[in-house]
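Researcher: Here's a chain I'd like modeled. Treat it as a single chain, no partners, no ligands.
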Amino acid sequence: MNMIKEIRNIENLFARVCFYIVGLIIMSLGIVTTYLAPKLGTGAFDALNYGMTETLGLTVGRWVLINGAIFILLNSLVERKFPKIHTVVTVMIIGHFIDFWLDRLAPFVTDQLMWQVIFLAVGLLILTIGAAAYIAADLIASPIDLLTLTMVKKSGKSFGLMKTIVEVACLLLALLFSGPIGVGTLVITVVIGPLIQVFLRPMNKLLVKFGKDKNVTDVMR
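Model: Modeled as a single isolated chain. Structure tokens:
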């Protein structure tokens, strides 16, 4: 009986790790796809990282890691606990794959409005599906999502609302560094939180089929 339980635990962990890693890879692809529509703008946090690259140097992936460390410290202040250093793993993976996808998709950047709208819509869809997958895994949240979840717990408000508030804060910072801000940025800022929340439920059901025993954390519903 104990052996069966151990096997199930291993299966559960394996499924969660797969959803976590694949989700981050998909999410980074979605982020870079929105970069292909620079005139429409990209997500607020991504615009911040891109703007800092253009203004201060370093790669976008490096700024993802640096800003992730800053969010870890901010979350520590809000939570009034020791910084959760392990969450840097998530931004390390995202940062690496953002640079990976940028190297391969950069030639597809276009000035044609029709293609920019398509890239923005497809990128947003891919981004939210990937985010829902890695959040459903319930392993290591990214620093920005960790801060969002902490705000949800402290305020009692929905994940979608708190995600929007964090995105607006990133938007204001992106403006300071002349990041690619546009209509698309406003759309992503308003829509990304609720969209992730929409995909979380079916993603959690899919994860259950692959071996997870329990549902996603209640604060994400």
